Amino acid sequence: MVGREGLEEADKYGIWAWVAGGLLSASVVLLMFGLAQGFA
């Protein structure tokens, strides 16, 4: 079984997954907004 260290490592990767997902979604929204402004 994986001990406490493995759990903390999973939490760390989970946080980075949330950060990466948030940045990706924000960049996509900004890109779509920029394209909409360009076509308008």
Molecular structure report:
With 40 residues, this protein is mainly alpha-helical. The chain has one helix and no strands. It has one helix spanning 4-39.
List the helices and strands and how they pair.
Blueprint: H1 4-39
Q: What is shown here, in short?
A:
With 40 residues, the protein is mainly α.
List keywords for this structure.
rod-shaped, 0% strand, 40 residues, mainly alpha
Taking Cα atoms only, what radius of gyration do you get, to the nearest Å?
A: 17 Å
Number of helices: 1
* Overall residue-averaged pLDDT value: 83
Q: Structural class per helix/strand content? A: mainly alpha
Low confidence ranges: none
Strand content range: under 5%
Distance between the termini: 57 Å
Helical amount among residues, as a percent range? over 70%
Main sheet: strands, sense, barrel? none
Order of helices and strands: H
What's the β-strand tally?
0
The shape is rod-shaped
